[in-house]
Amino acid sequence: MRCNQRSVIFIGLLLFAVVLTGCSENDRPLESPVRFEGDIFGSFYQVTVVDPLTQGEANALEEGFLAELESVDQAMSTYRDDAELIVFNQAPLNEWQPLSNELVEVLAISRSVAEASDGAFDITVGDVVNLWSFGPEARTEEVPSEAELSERLAIIGYDAIDVDTQNMQARRTREVFADLSGVAKGHATDRVAAYLDQQGIENYLVNLGGDLISRGHRDQEGETPWRIGIEIPQNGQPEAQHVLPLESISVATSGDYRNYFEVDGERYSHTIDPRNGRPVTHNLASVSVFHPSNAWADAWATALTVVGSETGMRMAMENNLNVLMLINDDEGHWRSFASPAFVHYFGETLMNELGIEVWESSIANRQTPTGE
Length: 372
Ligand code: ADP
Ligand code: MG
Hints:
By secondary structure, the chain is α+β, with helices and mostly antiparallel strands. It has helices spanning 2-27, 55-76, 84-90, 101-116, 126-131, 146-153, 181-198, 294-318, 340-346, 348-354, 361-367; strands at 34-40, 43-49, 97-98, 161-164, 169-172, 204-208, 211-215, 226-234, 237-246, 250-255, 260-263, 266-269, 272-273, 278-279, 284-291, 322-328, 334-338, 356-358.
């Protein structure tokens, strides 16, 4: 009996201790900055928070933004049969389909960038993307036949998807496959940022597979801005070429060296030119678009990659886009060109320091043929 009583007291104490340590573990302040990272959408995420956090707050925050990412995946993935986008792609033609706000929003952004880029950004290019084995259809890495290409090219076009933002619905008017891979990652980045804002976090950097958005500073004193590196491939490995401050803005970079396959020494990029159904090939190594919304930045970066430097910079000027292009010249040297909005945002002093040139088509034309 005495023994039993003792055990009860002992177990009681033990439980009390467990509860206590549990509490203190959650209350434990973490060293700043706190970095969360993992894999998502076949790519990676890195979320860095500078604001003071306890272990418990960090856990809740991570759970919260992972739920946002899961919801984007559920809406827009082309890799899961139950995704809202896949269901939309299988719905009968010409019938309006009620959709989630976020899917309608991303379809509407896609439509706007498609119109402003003369169809260079085109989510219906998904059918052709699959032919080139960059999409969800399992295929061997080979060059599709002319017949296959022209058959799919005849159907695609961004005008085959109508979006009604008033009533939150959309419809397909031809047998096309909507693929939001060129904009969804940017949208997901925006969603994570919006979630952190809602939670009152004031200093953070979100990086989703190279699409970035920042808020505040990288130190609690508010003195050091976030910095990002624009990379170029050196001996096959990406290396930071320009380090730029990123203050409460987002950036998306399209580069042809990250996702491609090679056949007989020829490199095929995963960005497809909707006008001829072929992967883009030119001297543009990367295009970075700085924009308050990462979804817009992401879509534009893909659009400008399609049209190349000359037309891309013209579009950047027409649409007042903040753009940095890295171009490979004839001698294999990299040159960096900025749109007027970039000059306005980052300032000439920084550009001079980094050796970034203001875009003047005549100069670039003469020394770096665009291959367009
Ligand atoms: P990047 O980082 O190079 O911009 P993204 O992941 O943003 O790459 O977009 C590439 C994806 O976009 C491709 O895998 C394809 O699914 C889709 N895509 C390819 N070409 C186009 C295009 N012209 N318009 C819209 N989406 C495209
Ligand atoms: Mg993109």
